[in-house]
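Running this now, will post back.
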Amino acid sequence: MKISLGLRAFLQAAGVTAYVIVFAFTVQNAEAWFTAHNFPPSPILSMVIFLLTFIVSALICSSLVFLQSVRLFAEGQKDAAWKLFFGSVAWLAFFLVFFGAITLLTL
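Update: finished.
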């Protein structure tokens, strides 16, 4: 089944958004978990965990957005690669505005 570039861009952006939502819920509940298990992390351990998490998140998000575009570009389909990349960016911007509006409306 051939997926259109527009749908593929949407799915890539939706994947990044879903990852961010799952990550946000996990981090939000991490403090409660650490407190419940009587395990206050040291400042250096917290910094290491934060930096490693940042790097892994960057790898996951860049893989979701760039991998298919780079493959298309390498195959010589430069127009399709750029359309897919900018389509993903546009959908990510839409999700940012959407969730930002929800946040502002619930204040």
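The chain has one domain: 5-105. More later if anyone needs it.
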